[in-house]
Automatic annotation (TrEMBL):
Serine/threonine-protein phosphatase 4 (PP4) occurs in different assemblies of the catalytic and one or more regulatory subunits. Component of the PP4 complex PPP4C-PPP4R4. Coiled coil: none annotated. HEAT repeats lie at residues 193-230, 232-270. It comes from Camelus bactrianus. The keyword Repeat applies. Signal peptide: none annotated. Residues 693-746, 800-852 are annotated as: Disordered. One of its GO terms (molecular function) is protein phosphatase regulator activity. Keywords: Coiled coil, Cytoplasm, Phosphoprotein, Repeat. It is found in: Cytoplasm. Residues 803-821 have a biased composition (Low complexity). This is Serine/threonine-protein phosphatase 4 regulatory subunit 4. Putative regulatory subunit of serine/threonine-protein phosphatase 4.
Length: 852
């Protein structure tokens, strides 16, 4: 009860603080006032928060009525700013800058109306307000004409930069001078600006000297090389010997940024001794100097490269190595609570130094020459990859692909470090590494001499376990974006490891992620990567099984969520594969979902139907078009869900407007048809490759290694056209055995080996843009009543007995996979569509067995 009484006491002041009717009356504004009148009233009689709101709305008023705003509102704004608080001042600075950026008024009008207000508040007592107005002024300087700058800014600046003025005034003058040099010619700068610059470089306050020193880079770019050498360089040399550490640091960083301006003599005789002295004194000075030195060391070594003597070259390299291990010798395993705060702060600075060294590591490889990497820098690289601190390992992971590029043929030297970073306990490190994982893996699989090339990844047996472990670690974490990105990058694997390794180590995992993960972007990433694995799988039996699982476990899955993912997969199939492939294996399973009992599935299918229709070619796929139209007609007649029905009606209109693609090339669809035919050709070649390799194994008595085949495929240019002897249907075992001449088989093998890696785009994303020209050979899906293909149902039980015979399964007309041939007389109950009912399976099995 006492606690409750205390609560009631606390509540009483809150009740008293509510606005009284009189206060509410004062805050009420007449609704009939215009925007301009309301703004004038609030700036004159309103409270501060209302005035701040008006100033924040000033850009809008300038857009609506600039003349009245300048005439009536802006004078009130000037009056309010004279006594305004910090919040109103900051709001005004932002509003003035917005008006400039939106170009609501001319530059002349802006300078006349707003410039004096900005200059008046530059020296506000609050540092934050002063900086806000300064940023606005620096942006205004970019657009003002020279005469306005000279009279309104430069001439008053002479008095503002004097020692008699405040430190804040002189600091503002430094930054304005640095900006003005880009607006005047070299002669005017030498006569009017450089005297002020020299004066501020000799200021009694170290903050002013440091600020002016950092503006010397802009000034040097404005006055040219000759004046820089005669005026700026002596000032920098003097400032580099200043008693203030921040001034020396500013001079050093400015010298590094201006290295390109100076010639070889200035670098060797003036700058190099200064840098050498700075490096020697850095360990004795403040650690903040070490942080800056380590950050600029790569640029410094690059700028001074060529003027080092062998001894100086070695000294700089040893200095870099020392920085890479700075602070590691002091590791003692003590609890952080037992370490004094000064030591902890020092260790944080040492971590920043090592992080900067990791950032500069690619530049240091260039400095020592990649040929000397193993002898000079490998041990340092090893230390950075095994650094105890995450920021250091994160930075070296970001740079890993640059290191791989620079090493070129020596990239195999860092295989173990790649495994180390893939297995890193921190997901941040893994996330940084996988940004460029496709480039890294491709470099490791193709880099180096041809004599070593085939053994690049085979000599790294830990790569695949590290990749799978990384994916499982990402899946177990809450960082789903890292998991999604990793699955997307795995799309590069067909380009670097064998088809069998992908099938046994990665493909089933993609299925698992699609069916068990709870994050939709992750599921979609797994689905797309699985489609790419299927696209480049080189064994028909394995492709057979993947298609079977997609249809049975997703398309006919018990969970509506799985059926939704099947539609996502169909969309990726349309993108990655040829139209004929989709029509043959996925067209009917997709449109059967029009009878799905879940409205969300039917709705998603309706959105997909235009893409489904785009895969059809007339007249070959006329019967599929009829089935599609029949399904849409049933949806229009039988759909009871109003949301689905509305989408169906919109989809019907879109389908009616679509133009059908023809079997022959059309000018309108030429590029798309060309790309589709290239995909189709590659799918045919994959089918031929397996059969021809089997015959080669039987004739030679030994299998062709996957790496050897990849090498031959890379070395052979893709032909622009295919011979007319390629069969029109997908070749199966029967079509392969029909060849009667060894010469024909040999030519096919050569042709199949020319299926090069240009089909795999460098970004591993837009696989539908992978070819330049294509052949005219096509294969068409089997059509009921139009060919010799037997009628096979999508729910064929032969999926479950694919290994019953010794003959390998294939994509031929005799395959047990579903094709576009379909018994149209079977009626489907909407409520049971997509389920695994056994009765339709038995009926289909009987019809198939009775068919010879």
């Amino acid at each position: 009860m006492e606690d409750l009484q205390e609560l009631t006491i606390i509540e009483r002041p809150v009740r008293r603080s509510l606005k009284t009717p009189e206060e509410i009356e004062r805050l009420t504004v007449d609704e009939d006032l215009s925007d301009i009148e309301r703004a004038v009233y609030l700036l004159s009689a309103g409270q501060d928060i209302q005035g701040t709101s008006v100033i924040a709305n000033l850009p809008f008023l300038m857009r609506q009525n600039p003349a009245e705003t300048l005439r009536r509102v802006l004078p009130k704004v000037r009056e309010a700013l004279l006594v305004a608080g910090v919040e109103m001042q900051l709001t005004a600075a932002v509003s003035f800058l917005t008006i400039l950026q939106e170009e609501s008024v001319s530059v002349h009008t802006y300078a006349h109306s707003f410039l004096q207000v900005i200059l008046l508040h530059l020296e506000h007592r609050d540092a934050g307000v002063s900086n806000a107005w300064l940023e606005t002024l620096l942006s205004v300087i970019e657009v003002l004409p020279k005469e306005t700058l000279r009279h309104e800014i430069l001439n008053p600046l002479v008095s503002k930069a004097q020692l008699s003025q405040t430190v804040q005034s002189r600091l503002v003058s430094c930054k304005i001078l640095g900006k003005l040099t880009n607006k005047f010619d070299a002669h005017a700068i030498k006569r009017e600006i450089l005297p002020l610059v020299k004066s501020l470089c000799q200021d009694v306050e170290y903050e002013v000297r440091s600020c002016m020193c950092r503006q010397l880079e802009n000034i040097a770019q404005g006055i040219g090389t000759e004046l820089t050498k005669s005026v700026v360089l002596p000032e920098l040399i003097e400032l580099s010997r200043d008693e203030g550490s921040s001034v020396r640091l500013a001079a050093f960083e400015t010298l590094v940024n201006l290295l390109d301006i100076f010639d070889t003599d200035d670098r060797s005789q003036t700058i190099l001794p200064l840098v050498k002295s700075f490096c020697e004194k850095s360990f004795k000075a403040d650690e903040s100097i070490l942080i800056s030195l380590s950050f600029h060391l790569g640029k410094l070594c690059h700028g001074l490269y060529g003027i080092f003597t062998p001894d100086q070259h070695l000294r700089f390299l040893e200095f870099y190595k020392k920085l890479c291990t700075l602070g590691l010798q002091q590791e003692n395993g003590h609890n952080e609570n037992q370490i004094p705060p000064q030591i902890l702060e020092q260790e944080k600075k040492y971590i920043s130094v090592r992080k900067n060294c990791a950032y500069n590591f690619p530049a240091m490889i260039v400095f020592v020459d990649p040929k000397n990497f193993h002898m000079e820098l490998y041990s340092t690289f090893f230390c950075l990859c095994h650094d105890p601190e995450v920021p250091v390992r994160y930075t070296i992971a970001i740079c890993f692909h640059e290191v791989s590029k620079l090493l070129n043929s020596g990239v195999y030297l860092i295989h173990k470090e790649l495994i180390t970073l893939l297995q890193d306990e921190s997901l941040e490190v893994l996330d940084a590494l996988i940004d460029h994982l496709p480039e890294i893996l491709e470099l490791m699989s193709t880099g180096g001499e041809s004599s070593v090339q085939e053994n690049k990844l085979s000599s790294l047996p830990d790569l695949i376990p590290a990749l799978t472990a990384a994916e499982q670690r990402a899946a177990a974490s809450l960082k789903w974006r890292t998991h999604e990105k990793l699955l997307q990058k795995y799309a590069c694997l067909p380009h670097v490891i064998s088809s069998d390794q992908i099938y046994y180590r990665f493909l089933q995992r993609m299925f698992t992620v699609m069916m068990t993960n709870n994050v939709l972007p992750v599921q979609k990433a797994a689905s797309r990567t699985l489609c790419i694995f299927l696209r480049y799988n080189r064994k028909q039996e394995q492709r057979h099984e993947v298609i079977q699982k997609l249809i049975e476990q997703l398309g006919q899955g018990k969970s509506y969520w799985n059926r939704l993912r099947f539609l996502d997969t169909c969309e990726f199939i349309i993108e990655i594969f040829s139209k004929s492939f989709f029509c043959k294996y996925f067209f009917l399973p997709a449109i059967e979902l029009t009878h799905d009992p879940v409205a969300n599935v039917r709705m998603k299918l309706c959105y997909l139907l235009p893409k489904v229709k785009s895969t059809l070619k007339i007249p070959a796929d006329k019967h599929l078009l009829q089935q599609l139209e029949m399904c849409v007609r049933k949806l229009l007649c039988q759909e009871k869900d109003k949301d689905v029905l509305a989408i169906v009606k919109r989809t019907v209109l879109e389908l009616d407007r679509m133009e059908m693609s023809m079997d022959a090339f059309q000018k309108k669809f030429y590029e798309k048809d060309l790309l589709d035919q290239e995909k189709e050709r590659e799918e045919l070649l994959l089918l031929e490759m397996e059969q021809l390799e089997k015959e080669k194994q039987q004739s030679d008595g030994r299998p062709m290694s996957d790496k050897a085949f990849e090498k031959k495929r890379r070395d052979t240019k893709t032909p622009t056209t295919l011979p007319k002897s390629i069969p029109v249907a997908v070749p199966g075992p029967s079509s392969a055995t029909s060849s009667t001449s060894k010469e024909i088989k040999k030519s096919k093998l050569i042709r199949s080996q020319s299926f090069n890696n240009q089909a795999f785009h460098a970004k591993y994303g837009n696989l539908d843009k992978c070819a330049s020209k294509s052949s005219t050979a096509t294969y068409t899906p089997s059509v009921s009543g139009l060919g010799k293909t037997s009628v096979i149902s999508l729910t064929d039980d032969s999926f479950r007995t694919r290994n019953a015979s010794n003959a390998p399964s294939s994509f031929s007309a005799n395959s047990s996979l579903p094709s576009t041939s379909r018994v149209t007389g079977n009626s489907v109950d909407p409520k049971s569509s997509g389920s695994k009912d056994t009765q339709p399976r038995k009926a289909t099995l009987k019809s198939r067995k009775s068919n010879p």
